[in-house]
Amino acid sequence: MSDIDLSFVVPAYNEEKNIRPFLEAMRDAVSSRKMRVEIIFVDDGSADRTWEVVSDVASDWESSSIAIRGISFSRNFGKESAMLAGLGQTVGNCVCIIDADLQQPPSTALQMYDLLISSPAYDCVAAYQEERKQGKIIGSMSSAFYGLLGDASGMEVVPNASDFRVMRRSVVDALLSMPEYHRFSKGLFAWVGFKTLPFAYVPAERNAGESNWGFKKLVSYAWEGLVSFSTAPLKVMTAFGLLSAVAALVMLIVTMIKRIALGVDVPGYATIVALILFFGGAQLIGMGVLGTYVARTYIESKRRPSFIVRDAVSSEEEAAR
Ligand code: UDP
Ligand code: MG
User: Fold this and answer.
1) For the whole model, what pTM was predicted?
2) How far apart, in whole angstroms, are the C-alpha atoms of residue 145 and residue 147?
3) Among 101, 102, 103, 51, which residue's Cα sits nearest to residue 76?
4) Beta bridge partner(s), residue 129
5) Out of 35, 65, 119, 279, which could bridge 5 as a Cys pair, Cβ 3.0 to 4.6 Å?
6) CA-nearest residue, atom 13 of ligand 1
7) More confident residue, 251 or 95
8) Residue 252: how many CB atoms within 10 A of its CB?
9) What is the dihedral of CA 201, 207, 210, 215, to 10 degrees?
10) pLDDT of res. 19
11) Is the CB of 97 under 6 A from ligand 1?
């Protein structure tokens, strides 16, 4: 057992204005408790002063109950990589993944921690948004996506689950044992299994800065997730190919009967052009889908690291100096 009760993994990309308020909120939340906490900031190649702020607070930090560490990436590798790097640094008996922008309040994280500690039958408490603040279109697209992902991969994927969760060490070790380069954490969380307790919460407004998720990024995230966790698109292609072959056969038979038995002339120029275009398009889509998997295999086979660390700080090493 470690002497750290709870580790926080905080991915931060362009969050210079949020680091200090985040720590303030954390101090408030932890102050009344007898527990030891570590906070691991992962600066995901921010273009602003996020890393300077993290290094500054880490070097001046004085608290017996909260330790601060930080690592900084050589460039922006994305939140998935930041979470992986942060998880790898944790030593706590439990670990919480939390955003730096205070949309997920530290006090809520501690409630989730309490719930986990008082529920020995569970290994993870995952926050989900009861009411999502998002448009109708994105909302229905995202529920369709989670339904599809669940069906396609045969895993139980909780809709609207976020990365905001508190896990026991065993879950963290399981997550770290998966070496893949393309990481889709919602799928990874579901894949490792363990008993997960859902926890409804309402996200607060972003403290400062803006969200990094545009519509385009969301769609590509969904596609990544689907391809990472299921080969269903390939099966859809096969099914489609079979169906169209059957349809073509039926058409051929009908045309032959018309021509031979009934002696009807079958004019078909427009139909032929339409069919050629349709199946040409369908084949290209199919090749695109297939290509996605081949490309995936290629990238994974290079075994590149998911991130590269440029610098690291720790409040405890500073204090020991
Ligand atoms: N983030 C990151 N790398 C990125 C994008 C985002 O580490 O490339 C972090 C960001 O700093 C924040 C968290 O991931 O702590 C969630 O990002 P954001 O607030 O933009 O997403 P939203 O809350 O809108 O889902
Ligand atoms: Mg946010």
Assistant:
1) 0.79
2) 5
3) 51
4) 201
5) 35
6) 99
7) 95
8) 10
9) 10
10) 93
11) no
Closest ligand 1 atom, CA of 76? 8
Task: With residue 29 as reference, give the H or E element that holds it.
Answer: helix 19-31
Instruction: Please count the other Cβ atoms lying within 10 Å of the Cβ belonging to residue 318.
Output: 15
- The dotted CATH code for 6-214+306-320 is 3.90.550.10
Residue type, 15: E
Instruction: Identify the nearest ligand to the CA of 15 by its number.
Output: 1
Mutate to test the pocket of ligand 1, among 73, 79, 132, 210 (most ligand atoms within 8 A of CB): 79
Q: Is 12 in the pocket of ligand 1 (CB under 6 A)?
A: yes
pLDDT tens column, 114-145 = 999 999 999 999 988 876 666 777 777 777 77
**Radius of gyration of the chain measured on its C-alpha atoms:** 25
**Secondary-structure percent of the chain, ordered helix, strand, coil, rounded to 5:** 50, 15, 35
- State the Cα–Cα distance between residues 87 and 82, nearest whole angstrom: 9
Closest CA to 165 of 198, 204, 117: 198
| Ligand 1 neighbour 101 (Cβ under 6 A) | yes
Q: Which residues pair with 95 in a beta bridge?
A: 7, 167
What is the CA 279 to chain-centroid distance, rounded?
35
For residue 57, report the distance from its CA to the centre of ligand 1, in Å: 21
Positions of E strands within the chain: 6-12, 37-43, 66-73, 94-97, 124-129, 161-168, 196-201, 309-314
The pLDDT tens digits of the residues spanning 6-63 come to: 999 999 999 999 999 999 999 988 888 889 999 999 999 999 999 999 999 998 888 7
CA distance 177 to 161: 22
CB 163 less than 6 A from any atom of ligand 1: no
Quote the ligand 2 centre to 176 CA distance (angstroms).
24
Two structure tokens written together for 250: 């039926």
**DSSP SS3 for 231:** coil
